[in-house]
Design brief:
Layout lengths: L2 H12 L4 H10 L14 H39 L2 E9 L5 E8 L4 E9 L2 E10 L5 E6 L2 H4 L6 E5 L4 H6 L1 E2 L1
Parallel strand pairs: 4-7
Antiparallel strand pairs: 1-2, 2-5, 3-4, 3-6
Length: 172
Amino acid sequence: MSNARQILDERLAKGEISEEEYDHLISKLAPEVEEDSATKPAVLDSATSLSKSQSGKNWAGWVVVGVIGLGIYLFINSLIQGRTHINNLRATGFFGDIVSGELITEGSSGQVYVWIEKGGKTICPRSVFLQQNRPRQFKFQCHEMGRVSGNNFTLKTNRSPKEWIRKNAKSL
């Protein structure tokens, strides 16, 4: 067997070239190296398919490990920071611009950011320090409530919100 043939056999076994490329290159070799399907190593097909299936399993394995790792991180993070609940939320006042309610956090004490989403806009960011499992009454005026169309609004909370909210938050 020629050296060129050995190299082609090795490249096919490693999966570096396809069977079509292998057959094409064998046919281009000198006439003394004739391609015979019986002389083609039988292990090549199984070795090539094995390497392809192994790489697919490795990729899928890493995806599973990543998803599990993300789930564990989010679970532990929620235990540490906990959830912040909003109770008795209402908007009062002549223009409906006085927002009040109660905040309580299940997790550790710390800074919590609060803002309103109305009509697709983020308005009236506020910040407050909450102690674990201790309700905190709040009430603030939000002039933007009357300027944004729509009657429905949502009060959102987060410990690490977008930069704009952090920079513009007023204390409750």
